[in-house]
Specification:
Shape: globular
Strand order of the largest sheet: 1-4-3-2
Number of helices: 6
Helix content: 40-55%
Largest sheet: 4 strands, antiparallel
Number of strands: 4
Distance between the termini: 41 Å
Order of helices and strands: HHEHHEEHHE
Low-confidence stretches: 1-22
Structural class: alpha+beta
Mean pLDDT: 88
Strand content: 15-25%
Amino acid sequence: MQRVLTTAALLAAALPAWANQPANPTEMTEAARAMAGQMIRQLGGELQKQLAAGGPEAAISVCKDKAPAIAGELSRTSGWRVTRVSLKVRNPLLGSPDEWEQGALKILERRLAAGEKPETLEFAQIVDEPNGKVFRYMRGLVTAPLCLSCHGAPESIPDAVKARLTTEYPHDKATGYGAGMLRGGVSIKRPL
């Protein structure tokens, strides 16, 4: 009998026992990396299913509904804040980066442009915020060819997808990407 692990079980395995103890930056980075990886794997799996079942137009619901649900579940399970952000926001209510996130995304863009491999694009830092010190982590999301049906050059996006995007995201700015460009990141935050 095959055992299916829930997100909570996978996350519990990724988070060491120190989760509520004093911070070790190396261990926090490893845990954040595991959480970001889990978010990316779950979202990617859902996108692949919807693309196979109904094409790019059907996959829009995954980014609109499933991605925030996955991030919310990871946040509730871990006690850390997990979200996706971008400098070119599709949904300003959920994806607008704060000042730290904007800076981290710009750093990752420069590193990608300098030839760094997409799978190594991450940035972690302990910062002072008004409510105290926090651990911040960003994992870059690089545009894959399958993303271009919704995030590519406006003239290359199919009309049915454009119509759905206009309905679902009236303030959409998340187009004009090419394959291999930084589209955004998974942002993780933990109070210390």
